[in-house]
Design goal:
alpha+beta; four-stranded antiparallel beta sheet; two-stranded antiparallel ribbon; 9 helices; 35% helix
Length: 283
């Protein structure tokens, strides 16, 4: 009798003679992952130039499925750091001395790669173009620019110290790298930015919480564009008292915002809509 090696826990571990096989149903979900959630390295097997954006998307889904907003897994930390990026952008006027927004212009960047004398650069340009076409459902096909958040404060690792940016999949995303060297220099009020312990949305500044609710309201197709983030926000109701929910809704209605505009005049947009941030006079 043959012994079967199964990654999932459904079905027996032996096989006798010729047996009928079947397509999996939920077998993939039963595969145990003993290390990934606590791994010190990022999971990078997604075959896409934009793999990390997908990984952040998966991180939000993992947190939702875990039914725990707060946790010690790699996924919880990635969600927390992505929310840190959003909070820094929300209060961008306050942190402009430590962060700078870098624009990756699709047309200019790809043209530069195609005209490069380095033999692998033209091929890289083709790969990027191919994935942007294939991932139209995730907002990449018509994306003209990608906006990245660069750390320029004390202890920066390099002149291009990218810590995250704006994502068409989850609004904000954070780098998978250890960013704790920034923590002592950037105080978000309720916690330090990019700490090695995660901070869920419900434990953050009330104004920032109301801002996330506001973004959900102004984007009429929010749940289609950002389904995992939408589910994450909905899950907050189990952690926030009814009086707090009313206060957050009132704040989101009364708070004043302005479009996030770069010094050179470029208005940052997400899915064609300007990204609002807190007005500078409210800082």
């Amino acid at each position: 009798m043959a012994k079967l090696l199964r990654l999932h826990t459904n079905g027996g571990d032996t096989l006798k003679g010729w047996c009928e096989t079947r397509l999996y149903n939920r077998d993939i979900e039963e595969i145990r992952d003993p290390n990934a959630a606590f791994s010190a390295k990022e999971m990078t097997s997604i075959p896409s130039s934009f793999a990390h954006l997908h990984i952040v998307k998966c991180a939000f889904q993992y947190v939702i499925d875990s039914r725990r907003l707060k946790g010690e897994t790699k996924w919880h930390l990635l969600v927390s750091h992505s929310l840190d990026v959003g909070e820094i952008l929300f209060n961008y006027h306050r942190y402009k001395d430590k962060f700078e927004i870098v624009e990756w212009k699709r047309e200019d960047a790809l043209l530069k790669l195609k005209q490069s004398s380095y033999k692998h650069h033209p091929a890289l340009a083709e790969v990027i173009e191919q994935f942007m076409r294939l991932e139209a459902n995730f907002g990449l096909k018509d994306l003209e620019s990608i906006f990245l958040l660069k750390y320029i404060g004390p202890g920066k690792k390099s002149d291009l110290d990218i810590v995250g940016g704006i994502s068409p999949m989850t609004l904000f995303f954070a780098s998978p790298d250890d960013l704790s060297y920034i923590s002592e220099h950037v105080d978000l009020g309720t916690h330090k930015a990019f700490e090695l312990k995660g901070t869920p949305l419900n434990e953050r500044d009330y104004y920032y919480q109301s801002y996330i609710l506001y973004l959900k309201v102004i984007h009429t197709e929010f749940y289609r564009l950002f389904p995992e983030l939408g589910s994450y926000i909905n899950f907050l109701q189990y952690y926030i008292e009814s009086n707090e929910q009313e206060m957050l809704l009132e704040l989101s209605n009364n708070q004043e915002y302005e479009p996030l505009v770069l010094d050179k005049g470029t208005t940052i947009k997400i899915w064609g809509e300007p990204l609002p941030i807190r007005k500078s006079r409210e800082m």
